[in-house]
Here is the input.
Amino acid sequence: MKTPELKKVYKENVVPALMKKLGYQNIHQVPKIEKIVINSSFGAEMDKNGIADLKNDIANLSGQAPVVVKAKISVSNFKLRQGMPVGVKVTLRGNQMWEFLYRLIAISLPNIRDFRGVRAKLDGRGNYALGVTDHSIFPEINVERQRVNVGMDICITTSADSDEEGKELLQLLGMPFRKQTPQPAEKAA
Here is the structure.
């Protein structure tokens, strides 16, 4: 099987750059991407056809079949009963993970109207979560067939120990982080 393009970039360019910039002595100290979790939830009002369509859409853009997540408890205010389907999720590893990340960075994110970059805030342990409000930004999604716009969460888990390492890894892979604008200093009273 052919090696994904982004994985080649990681091995040939990102690893040496991180070793030089962060001062690693061993190649195994360099942070890497471990997995990507795609999660899409919907309300109790979605019908069975909508659930099947969403499963097909997530399967098309991820390359593997998603798992249906069911409600653990009943909540009467949301018309939700225990055991009802409330979302789908899929965990990507290996080549499928690299292919999805490449399509996300190179095709889907720039496809968003008025795109200025993604937020540059990580979780404190070097992992990054990204919310997408409309999953039709992916070219695999058939827009004509689609009835509702469904959002999704994309969580990128890295082996980095800190936010600085994780952010540097994602930046070198091409994640389009938003440019930080300096805040004006407040006047002292």
